[in-house]
Structure formats: structure tokens, C-alpha cells
Amino acid sequence: MAILSFILFLFVAAACAYIAERMVPGSIPGGFLTSAIVGIIGAWIGGNMMGSIGPSLAGVSLLPAILGSALLVFLLSFFSHRFHRA
Fold it and tell me: Sign of the CA dihedral 27, 68, 34, 80?
């Protein structure tokens, strides 16, 4: 994978995580790098759950990546809120 395609992959994954963060009642602590990591993990989770359906951009299937990222953002905010409260 060339460096330019990897950077484009990071931007698409971060955009999917940003969209997912707006969909669920939680937030991702950190900046762009954290969003990109959540987007990559969310794309992996969504791809394993749903396969590669829908449109794709830079090797990322957008619908599974957004839904997987939304699930991950929800779980992260739920557990961070739960541990922060205790």
C-alpha cells in the first residue's frame, strides 16, 4: 500500500468515525488520530458484521464503517462514562 493511499484511507476512516460520533449520544476523546483509529477499528468491526456492502472509497466500505464506528463510539462512551463515574 502506498503512503498516499494509506493517508487517504485514514481520512476516510476518520470521516466515518466523525459521522458515527454525530449519530450516537457519545463522543470520542482526542483529536484526528483518535478518530482515525476508531474509524479503522469500526470499519473492521462493520466489515466483519455486514461484509462489504454499499459504496466504498479508498478501500473502505462506507456503510459498514459508519455503523461499526457508531457501535464502537457508543461502547467507548458507555464504558468510559461508567468507569469515570465510579
Answer: positive
